[in-house]
Design goal:
By secondary structure, the chain is mostly helical. It is 42% helix and 6% strand. The model has no long low-confidence stretch (mean pLDDT 90).
Length: 72
């Protein structure tokens, strides 16, 4: 609800391409997720960076899988 999304979000939805997220939106999403699960520093840098470079885009499935692995 923070982003006033009008389209349906599914596992294949991409943050940048489909939802037009900017880097600040991704940071806000990470903070919201950590707050929701009451876990600080879940290590999202592992998801957001590959070989020292930021990834271009993430899907909802990428984020969901990452969270599942961290909470397991």
């Amino acid at each position: 609800q923070d982003w006033d999304l009008e389209e349906k979000v599914v596992e294949e939805t991409r943050l940048v391409t489909d939802l037009e997220f900017e880097s600040i939106d991704i940071i806000q999403l990470v903070v919201a997720i950590e707050k929701w699960f009451q876990k600080r520093n879940m290590g999202f840098d592992q998801l957001l960076m590959v070989d020292g470079r930021y990834v271009d885009d993430l899907t909802i499935a990428d984020i969901s899988s990452f969270i599942s692995n961290k909470l397991a």
